[in-house]
Amino acid sequence: MTGCSSRRGLLAGIAALCLARTARAETPQAARPPARPLPDAAQLIRASGLAGTTGYALVDPLQGRIMAEGGAAMPFSPASTMKAITALYALDRLGQTHRFRTRVLRADDMLILAGGGDPILSSDDLDRLAADLVAAGAATPARFAVWGGALPQIEEIAPPQADWLAYNPALSGMILNFNRVYLNWRRADGRMQMSLKARAERHSPRAYTITVAPGDQPDLFSYRSEDGIEAWTVSRAAIAQPGSRWLPVRKPELYAGDVFQTLCRARGLVLPRPDTIRMLPVAEEVAALDSPPLITILRDMLYYSTNLTAEVVGLQASGAPDTASSARAMQDWLATKGQGAGFQLRDHSGLSDDSRVTARGMALMLAGPGLAAGLPELLKTDPLAEDLGLDPDRSAQVAAKTGTLNFVSNLAGYVTGADGNRRCFAILSVDPARHEATSGQEQPAGVRAWTRDAKRLQRQMLQAWAGSGG
Q: Which residue in 252, 248, 254, 287 sits closest to 176, CA to CA?
């Protein structure tokens, strides 16, 4: 009896649910509050007084329609919004769980530090590798070499940019501390003291393959290579007060070998002076270290906007011999996803001034492959807060990627309003004349104020779109 009563109760409940649904279906549509029309974004742009040009597009991903756009087919430099495309490409080609493996190999009387293209390898990681090597009972070899052939060797990831900018290092399959070295200077006992360190959280050994000295020169920095040493000269006028900054590394294999040699020596294993090899011989693996999974690396890349990581994962995904052909492969991949229109890609980080995207293309890409791959969960929330503070209205929930060059300010991602609907957007701004005139310069006059005004405009547009309920 209990089972029959339960079944009758269940059937009665289903019937009641059906009646309720029918009643709701018969409720007049007029009872629902009408959606407010989208605000005029073009009017917001005009009112902002921002010098230059702004293109924008807002897409409803559920209906696949463009809700608002202006200048949406105009080509713009993507800057670091390019990294969102690169992240999707790497996820598709390599998979979320892909890891980069750094190895120590033994080939006869030679010990080899073999880079696997790990873009986030640090001095602390090399110390763990040194500890494992010593624990394995490694003996002092006759030769010590470093191999970086897992990736193409590229002297600078953005040649038009200044040589001394930390985000413009060399690239190879052997990467350490984002291929940067930490310069510190101060005056003590009447003398200028300068140091270069392979700085990490726990270990910051001295970099012996890189030197720096003050000089009387008009340029902030000058660089030369001599006998396997990277030699930097810095203007005396720039170091009158104590300070520090990162410098790019130009010989990443020697830099990593130098640091690994120091860390091994601290644990009692003496290695010869490092050399580089082009070909990897048949060898036995004696120690290894795997990177975190790719999904973690990409989340950090998008959060911190790391240029080197973007170029590395893009090259890994394509297997191409250089940046230009790797970018073309990524563009071809976009075309296979039905997203080829509006893109001319020349790199993976957005540093290249030759890359072009459109606001419409970016927004549609975010609505298609972006949502399919779960990109919103990888993007920074409220990315404008760092420059503008928290949104006082809290009207727009935003997950997006910024993109900034001199007199270029872009934002592309996802905005969710009070109605709970998520929309995809791209807002791209440039002052062409000032951008061209200051390309490669560090913090030219007027750029901070212009960029802040561009970000205020982005927030106003997002607030308007989020509050429209359209």
A: 252
